[in-house]
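Worked example 2:
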Amino acid sequence: MITDFRALLNNTQDATHRVAIYSGTREFIKHKSRNKMYISDEQLHAMELCIYYGIKFQVEGLEGEQISQMCQCTGSQCWRGGDRCNDWVWAEQSAGRCYGALNGHLPWQLQRLFKIKLVNEDGALVEYWLAQALTTIPDNPGNLDSVLKCVQVRNAPAAVALQVFMMGNIVS
């Protein structure tokens, strides 16, 4: 059973995924810290963690209403005796007109859903709901393809193909 960050790393067979989840989570914690606190490997490995295979969250509908949506992500595990189930989601990158018609959103494929608990600089216990995803980047700076009448995206380069981000950045 996976109950801490070390167990998550040990359970991740793909070396690329293991490095990405390690460095992405470390960078996330550093970014969220007011004073860019340093966290040792031992502190990171001992961090309490919970894996999720599905999560329900609120997103904004087309008319501005709040609707519930379910995301499923089994990682490398099979889903109910079948294939893996790693949903695609729209992840918010930037507010505004970034990426042209995509309005700052890109489709990413979930690889892990997890919650970490850590003690912040003030001594308070905080929880962060995080996801790891295979990322995409827009072709033609997010402009509509004149023939297809849609925006095309492609897989991100290997160096940034896997990202750890807050589940709150999932917009649909």
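Residues 5-169 form one domain. The first strand starts at residue 48 and ends at 52.
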